[in-house]
Each structure stands twice: as structure tokens, then as C-alpha cells.
Amino acid sequence: MNHTPTHQTYDIVIIGGGIMGAATAWFLTEQPDFDGRVLVVERDPSYEFASTTHTNSCMRQQFSTELNVRVSQFAADFVKNLRRYMGDDPRVPDLTIRSFGYLYLADSDDFANTLRANQKVQLAAGAATRLLTPDQIASEYPFYNVDDIMLGSINTVDEGYFDGSTLFDWFRRKSRERGVEYIHNEVVAMARNANRIDSVTLKSGAVVGCGQAVNASGPRAVETAKMAGLTLPVEPRKRFTWVFSAETPLDRDLPLTIDPSGVHVRENGGGTYMAGGHPDHDPTAPYDDFTMDHGFWQDHVWPIIATRIPQFEAIKVQSEWAGHYAYNTLDHNAIIGPHPEVSNFLFLNGFSGHGLQQSPAMGRGTAEMLVHGRYQTLDLTPFHFDRIAAQRPILEQAVI
Ligand SMILES: Cc1cc2nc3c(=O)[nH]c(=O)nc-3n(C[C@H](O)[C@H](O)[C@H](O)COP(=O)(O)OP(=O)(O)OC[C@H]3O[C@@H](n4cnc5c(N)ncnc54)[C@H](O)[C@@H]3O)c2cc1C
């Protein structure tokens, strides 16, 4: 990848080439009224520390707000019809969703009521969420211990695993083929003139003029916002993943099971399973801290999994990693759209643990906003920065 931009000015400079930056770049190339120059600046094209390469790559429609359900419904349609969306290009593979579903388990009246309320929102938006009594859970999935469980909530339509890394590859590949320029460099400063960003300065020293700038910097979003003189309630939070094999694999697909403790575990194929979680003490992580917490697995996660699914008493960890969520401390939801005053600076931040599935809707919406100054498909304005300034959270009850 080149280090040097070909031009001195671009209509749009995207700061960060993870899935959000790449999705936006691709959707820009889909806008019929737009033939401007687009530059994507990526500080690490190996994506060694990006959220996108540490993801668990699942999608769900079990959210508590209608808009988040609709965002994921577009993801499901986009993933299942990727080739059609990408112009029927025969090189683009057919992708599917492995719809084992997410199974939320409630062990308290409060959480059971939350699941009931969420299901109403989801059904109204067209999702296929079912509530299950403990007996129904035991009959559909006999391997669970449901002694302490009051209610389960599951949706096995368009909810489960998808191949996010192939989606990421094709966003990048197709947008480059259509003229988007990606460079290996880092945005280190911005020139703000009153309420406009005039240019970005790269680590190499080059100054690049921009019509509009997009903050797609993942867990580093706050650093990019600072360069524009803005603050953002987004911070890196460490999230652990373990892949393990079971001595006796389950006889059917394991839904992505969210234990009442917050630990989650799911089908990973071939007799392997993927678990995730984080300690209650959940501080901001230094950007370069990806160390594992082995004690947390041994003393917390594995005992919880083995209690919930006794067949998982005999398991062997095969791989593990720590990744960073870009965690929105106000309400865990996306922060997107133009800054109310610095209107040529757009946010695309704070996706916590659901950004991979949100990338098609957020990339499409951001491209529409950049080109037309308004959304043309799904109205994403509730996610705008205004709510942050007004401290008006959109509370999402279904967070993992
Ligand atoms: C453990 C884990 C599990 C997850 N599981 C799921 C899941 O199952 N489903 C789901 O939908 N989502 C999941 N997510 C969330 C999802 O992966 C992220 O929300 C998504 O990848 C965010 O993409 P991004 O492009 O915003 O950020 P990133 O992928 O982090 O990309 C941002 C890029 O910006 C670059 N950058 C930063 N600053 C600069 C700068 N100044 N100049 C140039 N480049 C810069 C970085 O190098 C980086 O490559 C998970 C995340 C983690 C960590």
C-alpha cells in the first residue's frame, strides 16, 4: 500500500480503514450522483490491533430499539445478497448466515421482563424472536442446566455467525477497484478554521486538503476527535475471546448463549466453541494492551460455562485473544453523522460489540449523508452526536 496520497486535496478523507471506513468507501462508490475523490488513511494495514480483526463475527436482531433491529436486518439482507449488491460480480462469493440464534437466559424477574419487552419491539419490527420457558429450553437444547433459569429468548432467523472478514475484504477490494485510494499513513493533526476542517496532516508530513472528513478510527476515535478540537465519550475496553474443543461435542448447534452472568458461548463448527466475556472491573484499556487474563478464564468463565453446559467440563482451549471495543460510555450505541457545528467532520464511532453487523447500514447511511446531506434509506439521525451534547442517551437494553 502506498504511503503518499496521489492528490493534494480530496472530497472525502476517511480516517481509519477498518470495516466502517471500508464500508463507507464502498457505499460512496455506489452513489450515482457522486464522482468525487476519496482517500482512506490507515495507520496499520495489517489491522493487527483493529476491532475488525478481533471480532466474533455474529449478528442478531435481538436489540431493544427498533432502529438497531432494522440496522441488523439490512446487514442480514446485505450479507445474504452480497454478490448482487456488488453488481453481480462473479468473483464475489455467496455468503450465508449460520443462524444458530442468540439465546438470552434470564434468572430474575427483572431480566425476564426486559426480555418480554424487547421481544415486543423485535416482533413489531419483523424479527422472529421466541420466548422459551425453561422446559421448552430443555426440550430444544437438552444439554443446558436450566435449574436457575426463568425465561429464554431466541431468534433463529438471520441471527448467528457470518463471514465478516470476507465482507471486509470485498468492501476494500471493490472500493479500490472503483477508484478509492487507500494509503498506509496516519492522520496526526487537522487544520480547523472556525467550523470547518480544512485539511489533515499525515505522519509523513504531507498536508491533505479535504471537503469532508470521517472519523472511522475505531477505539482511537477520541484521538481523532481531539485533532478536530472535539470530545467524544468513546474509549477502548478490553474483551476476551477463547476458542475451545469439547471432549464430547454437543449433538446440535449451540446458540450464542448469553448466560445471566454476562459470559457468552457459541457454536464455532467442527466440535469447537467460542466463548467471550470481561471482568466486572472494566477500565479504559491502553491502546497497546492486548494481554490475556488467564485467571479470569480459569476462575470465572470456564466454571460458568461448565455449570451451564455440564458437557463442557472436559474442554481444551485452542486459541484465545483480547480485542478492544470502541465503547460509548453514554449509551453503548453508535455515534454517527456530522458534528452540529463542525459540519464537515462526521463521526462513525462507538460501535462496542456490534459494529461488524452494523457496517452495511452505517456505511450506507454515512455515504448518503456525505453526498446528499441527509439519509435516503434508513433514517439514522437518532444516532447523531446531538444526543451526546444533550446527554440524551438512547438506552439499548440488549448489550453483550
Ligand atoms: C472481541 C470482540 C468481539 C466482537 N464481536 C462482534 C460480533 O460478534 N458482531 C459484531 O457485529 N461486532 C463485533 N465486535 C465489534 C466490531 O468488531 C467492531 O465494532 C467493528 O469492527 C468496528 O470497526 P471500525 O472500523 O469502527 O474499527 P476498527 O476495526 O478498529 O478500525 C479502525 C481503524 O482506524 C485506524 N486508525 C485509528 N486512528 C487512525 C489515524 N489517526 N490515522 C489512520 N488510521 C487510524 C486503526 O488502525 C484501525 O485499523 C466485536 C469486537 C471485539 C473486540
Q: Which key features would you list for this structure?
A:
binds flavin-adenine dinucleotide; 10 helices; about 400 residues; alpha/beta; eight-stranded mixed beta sheet
Textual characterization of the structure:
The protein has 400 residues and is an alpha/beta fold. 28% of the residues lie in helices and 27% in strands. Strands 1, 2, 8, 9, 10, 11, 17 and 18 form an 8-stranded mixed sheet that branches. The chain has an 8-stranded mixed sheet with strand order 5-6-4-13-14-15-12-16. Strands 3-7 form a two-stranded antiparallel ribbon. Strand 17 and strand 18 form a beta hairpin. Helix 1 crosses helix 6, helix 1 packs across helix 9 and helix 2 crosses helix 9. The longest helix is centred in the C-terminal third of the chain and has 18 residues. The two termini are 35 Å apart. The mean pLDDT is 97. Bound molecules: flavin-adenine dinucleotide.
